[in-house]
Amino acid sequence: MKKQLIIIPSILFLLILLTFFYLLIIERNPSEIPSNLIEKNVPKFEAESLINSKKFISHDEFGNEIILVNFFATWCKPCIEEHIYIQRFADEEKIRVIGINYKDNPKKTIKWLNKLGNPYSNVLLDKNGRIAIDWGVYGIPETYVVNSKGIIKYKHIGPITEKIYKKINSLTKEIK
Amino acid sequence: MAPSLGNFLLWLSLFFATFQFFASRKKNNLKLKFITIAVGGLLISSLLAFFLLIYVHVVSDFSVLNVFQNSHTTKPLLYKISGVWGNHEGSMLLWIIVLTIFNYFIFKLYNKKNFSFISKTLETQAFIIIGFVLFTILTSNPFERIIPEQNDGLGFNPILQDPALAIHPPLLYIGYVGFSAAFSISIATLNFNNNEKIPWYNYMKPFVMAAWTFLTIGIALGSVWAYYELGWGGWWFWDPVENASLMPWLLGTALLHSLIIVEKRKSLQSWVLLLSILAFLLSVLGTFLVRSGILTSVHTFALDPSRGLYILIFTALLGGYSLILYGTKSKKYFNNDFFSFLSKEGSILINNILMVIVCATVFLGTVYPLLIEAFTNNKISVGEPYYNSTVIPILIPAILVMGIGPLLAWKKEDKSKIFKKIFPSILLTGIMTILIFSIYRSYTLIGIVGIILSFWIISNNLIILIRKNKKYSIGMIIAHLGVGFLILGITGSSVWQEERITRMKFSEETKIKEHKIVFEKIDEIKGANYIALQGNFLVYDENGNIFTKLKPENRFYPVTSNFTTEASIHTNLFRDLYIVLGEGNLNEGWVVRIYYNPLVVWIWIGALVIFLGGLVSINANVKKLKILEQ
Fold it and tell me: Which of A7, B49, B205, B613 is the least crowded, having the fewest Cβ atoms under 10 Å away?
């Protein structure tokens, strides 16, 4: 009897740790709750561009082709990690990517993009985080897939990895 | 400069911890000297690292990534300092500091008789310290550099800029980490033949006492913060992070009381050994749950999965080793003592079992969503209804027993005397209950039960206190009295709370209970690092006189671009009046939430009284230990 009393908690302890381990290694995001914006039109907004002085007006730009919208900042480390995938979307897959530069310093952003390469067709400034609030951004990086009708089809929170890269690619092929 | 020095100090701490680990294992003439150097060196190097981190935060050295990410030049000094442990990396350094301080106190226990026993304890403690220092250096280094140096920081989450939250983590960590000492003593005891009759339980008790006392006040301050800062009118939300601190507290409560039995009757030794192992494992597991980002939390972005993996592996090592050790070596501490139901030790044992069941219930509620997600991929959420319907029914008998337990004799209580003993407190309970219900006039079953229970505890302990009975430990009586106040506050605020959510324009009024509240105006004000809209509300008493003005704020922090709400609260011994200003504008008016929270202040009073009782007990136990040593 006593022996069992000792073995049972040990096994339970082990089982729980194994579950945690499993949850850690699979790619999951604990705060990922289905976004309200999925299957809805992109939020309307206007923003300054980083490079040219032309104002970006959202309803003129969305709705013609598939667009990825990527929220990033130079102070965000995972953004550097995912940058090569953003680049691959633009170069290899020829998908238009709009970058939204979240709470950042434009000068640093220009330096950053010069160093890492600029995959974005437009880089929009979101100095005070207004645009991010409309899009329901939790924390950057976040990436949205918008279809050719201007409807948000998918949202990924966190840096893009090889697995997510493939997932988004198969999704964009599907909705084409 | 600072980053290199900080890194050096961290590595130095690692060196001393490793040195301590090996020195305490070896048999050597110079052993004591080696250990003295290691313990002292570890304490000094880690304290220096900690002060250095405070220093770089205070002077806003933006060559350090940690300062850049969590600070800003405009931040008030208090929050520059508390910002040190308000972030992950700094809080890990705080963990290490508390570990090394407890390490030092264990070292102070050395005497001629217990030499090899304390060495064994220090070995385990050193192993734990190595684990956490390595974790900090490898995955959470607070001294990481940022190149190039920045001009200003990103700012500190304004919701964390609160005086209660400034001291909440250090107190909580004293609690968590205090159990590490009990854990190490437990491991040493199991490894030891104990032919010399080392009184390990006497060594363990002050540590457990300290851990439990500080954990209590730490958790309470977390609640104070939630109550004042979150603006939801409540003080406990059964959030996983809250549960992570509650679970070690529950086991700590059981452990504390069992130690009394071990001390008096030498029974329950194996049970105490197990509890002290589990209490610390739950502390580490709590850290894992909070730090790994495995749970839903607002801090999950930019998280590094290697952190979670590291703590998990470390927990598995500690847990695997200690539980196997317990399984193989605890036999000699087993005994089959029979306890009479009606005795002090009987009542403690009942409470013990109930505390462990509550802890298991909370644990289940906390990990259940994770288990379900792992096995079925569905997301579910376990919340207040679960905890209310499971935890409360288990706590009711526990509180009943808690009132009567201290009055009972050791071994066996004479049945005929019991009623005589408890009669005065039954009378007092009855009177106070009738009094309070004549004030609040709201009768629900759970409310009546809660109020009776709280007065039951209060009157039992008040009577002992008034009679000045030397038989009882004064710390225990004070702490129990605090629990009575706590239950009073919890019951009152959860059963009798009233809430109004309305939209108000200037000079409109609304009524809650006996108070009329008039929205006078809105001011724009400027704080140290924020700007705010401040509502002005006039509060009238039942005779129509203005007795206070409440000024809730909507703050905007430009640096981090965050909005926060500051509730404005009027407190007296009977109720809190709590106003939160929501969204709105001049034309449509503002959304205003008003809460009438009865007896909330008794929760804080209760926690404080428990804390004081705990301090008295720590002092008494340390004194007892000193006498024992002579």
Answer: A7
For residues B414-423, average pLDDT? 80
pLDDT at A29 over 70: no
Report the C-alpha gap between B529 and B467 in whole angstroms. 54
pLDDT at position B254 is 95
Mean pLDDT, residues B448-477 taken together? 88
Q: Say which of B312, B330, B373 has its CB closest to residue A17.
A: B312
* pLDDT of res. A7: 75
Residue recorded with tokens 């004549």 = B438
pLDDT of residue B408: 84
**How far is it, in rounded angstroms, from Cα B40 to Cα B191?**
25
Task: Give the C-alpha separation, B92 to B173, whole Å.
Answer: 10
pLDDT, residue A6, reads 67
DSSP state of B381: -
Residue B56 pLDDT > 50, yes or no? yes
Q: Which residues of B touch A10 (CB under 8 A)?
A: 323-324, 327
Return the CATH fold of A37-175.
Answer: Glutaredoxin (3.40.30)
Distance (Å, rounded) from C-alpha B446 to C-alpha B40? 54
- By residue range, what is the domain housing residue B434? 415-484+605-630
Residue B61 lies in a domain: yes
Q: Is the pLDDT of residue A30 over 70?
A: no
Q: Establish if B437 belongs to a structural domain.
A: yes
Q: What is the pLDDT of residues B562-572, one digit of tens each?
A: 778 888 999 99
For the segment B194-212, the average pLDDT, to the nearest whole number, is 89
Is residue B428 located within the same domain as residue B569?
Answer: no
CA distances from B39 to B30, B94, B182 (A): 14, 17, 18
Final residue of a structural domain among B93, B122, B156: B156
Which of B298, B309, B367 has the CB atom closest to A16's CB atom?
B367
Which chain A residues are within 8 Å of B326, Cβ to Cβ?
6
Are B453 and B502 members of one domain? Answer: no
Do residues B514 and B444 both lie within one domain? Answer: no
ipTM: 0.70
How many domains is chain B partitioned into structurally? Answer: 3
Query: What CATH number did the domain enclosing B50 receive?
Result: 1.20.120
Q: Which residue has the tokens 């995938």?
A: A85
List the single best residue of B247, B270, B318, B561 to mutate versus A (max A Cβ within 10 A): B561
Q: Is B69 on the interface with A (CB under 8 A)?
A: yes
Question: B373 contacts in A (CB within 8 Å)?
Answer: 23, 28
- B16 to chain A, closest Cα gap in Å: 30
